[in-house]
Amino acid sequence: MHELVIRNGTVVDGTGAPAFAGDVAVDGGVITEVGTVGAAGREEIDATGCLVTPGFVDVHTHYDGQVTWDPTLAPSCWHGVTTVVMGNCGVGFAPAAPDRHEWLIGLMEGVEDIPGTALAEGIRWGWETFPEFLDFLDTQPLMLDVGTQVPHGAVRGYVMGERGARNEPASPEDIAAMARIVQEGIEAGALGVSTSRTIAHRAIDGEPVPGTFAAEDECFALGRALAAAGTGVFELAPAGVMGEDLAAPDREMDWMVRLAEETGRPITFALLQHDIEPDQWKKMLDLVGQVHDRGIPVRPQVAGRPLGLLLGLQTFHALRDRPSYLAIEPLALAEKVARLRDPELRARILAEAPAADPRMAFIGLGLDRTFRLGDPPDYEPGPEESLAAQAARAGVDPWDLYFDLLLGDDGRELLLRPLLGYAQFTQDPIREMILHPATALGLGDGGAHVGAICDASIETYMLTHWVRDRTRGARLPLELVIRKMTSDPAALYGLGDRGVLAVGKKGDCNVVDLDRLALRRPEMHYDLPAGAPRLLQRADGYVATVVGGQVVMRDGVETGARPGALVRGAR
């Protein structure tokens, strides 16, 4: 008798091979049969009419703080994810000098929009060095498997103190000390090292992430530490990723290729389309294709949908810079909505000149690029659905329409403002990026930007939008989408024991009813430590999620099982 049998499903094994009808058996946390399983299971899941896939591997998350207080790592656990990788973009909480905890929290809060109050109250510190951090994670009860990377920003601050925090040049002694810490972390089980080179990433005090302007010798020293350890990925948010420097991508590609050639270690970086030069991503992919054909491991990470902001009374919006609105900003949502329905206050707010806040001006620009998200949410609206277009058809001022929509659903309405990946009002560029053989799916930022997005749901979106529902262009094959969420990211990070439904692989599986799979509209919850807010997005249609042979989610409800573990190193 088997411990678990998933029976009568459509098996999509994660390799890209055609789906087939079959069963999957798991014993001792490992897959023991795939195909027709004759023996019964002590536990069986009827997958009739459902997909059976490997557990999804999300390599770009920021659960570095949340993992110390939340064993479920929601919302990723609601979207079929069974393995997460954190420590991305050069930010994290190890190494951590005892007197630098507050600074590390401010760095994470500024870069990844995770409330500092939640981090300050929620993190249970129990380490200083990176190996000690891994040992701490080993003691945590976990629903999912967790891997992490050594963050350059934390390392720089640990070695150089305020000099590192202020991005002063590193001395040869500083660089040698940083390289030792990275190698020590990799040898203890980190999956890689990460850094950020985009000026869009700033600490809460406005200072760019330590390492943003690091000289080539510093970056190469981190890469050589991976080579010395014989394993690990070099992950980065490159300069120019937000379109702030159009010449940056070429420069970044040059040194990344040289580093990958010298060290033999994979380099993975964020690649997105931006409005300033909408076709630059094609040039980057062409360059990647050339080095990929030569066997040089440079792998762009691409997103499954546009990177954008969710605007509303519970998040932020372009009327927040009007003085009369600011006067009621502190009110509870219901009271705020009641006040905003007063015609006199409404007229006063709309008549006021915006304050000089470049952030609000930025999201307020271009109501031709702002849309009602809707329920179910639509992440690929046409230009005719923009607020500007709707207002023109109705013969009303677009800001009057904006105001009306903010009050929708008693102030819970959300507007979508795509920022990257939607320059031409189509997701066709995203489709081309996903199809490229060198790209890896990532950039969901699970656990981060909780006041503005909830892109940890991208795995579900890949199945609903790209496989089943898309109408404004070509879709993607089911087998390819599953591979991009399973074996491909697992292989990038050296996790060869998972991502495929095959005998001997880790027993991580999803049973998905594709016909009824659906993304719900994101909702604001106040469930972080200190009552801090975050947007959460649930899904319907996951019959079961299995980690190491144990069912951790059943029909969207946690079972209480905690089979997850720290993933140390390649395997």
Sum up the structure in keywords.
alpha/beta; 6-stranded parallel beta sheet; TIM Barrel; 571 residues; 9-stranded mixed beta sheet; 2 domains
Q: Over the alpha carbons, how many angstroms does the gyration radius reach?
A: 23 Å
What is the correct CATH architecture of the largest domain? Alpha-Beta Barrel
Shape: globular
The proportion of residues forming helix, as a percent range, comes to 25-40%
Count of helices?
Answer: 20
Q: How many strand segments?
A: 25
Considering the protein shown, what is the CATH homologous superfamily of the largest domain? Metal-dependent hydrolases
> What is the beta-strand fraction?
15-25%
Q: Which structural class matches the secondary elements?
A: alpha/beta
Mean pLDDT: 95
Biggest pleated sheet? 9 strands, mixed
Q: How many domains is the backbone divided into? A: 2
State the CATH topology of the largest domain.
TIM Barrel
CATH class of the largest domain: Alpha Beta
Distance between the termini: 29 Å
Identify low-pLDDT runs: none
Structure, explained:
The protein has two domains: 78-140 and 148-306 and 421-492, Metal-dependent hydrolases (TIM Barrel), CATH 3.20.20; 310-420, no CATH class. The protein is an alpha/beta fold. The protein contains 20 helices and 25 strands. Helices cover 32% and strands 19% of the residues. Helix 7 (216-229) runs parallel beside helix 8. Strand 12, helix 9 (280-293) and strand 13 form a beta-alpha-beta unit. Strands 1, 2, 3, 4, 5, 18, 23, 24 and 25 form a nine-stranded mixed beta sheet that branches.
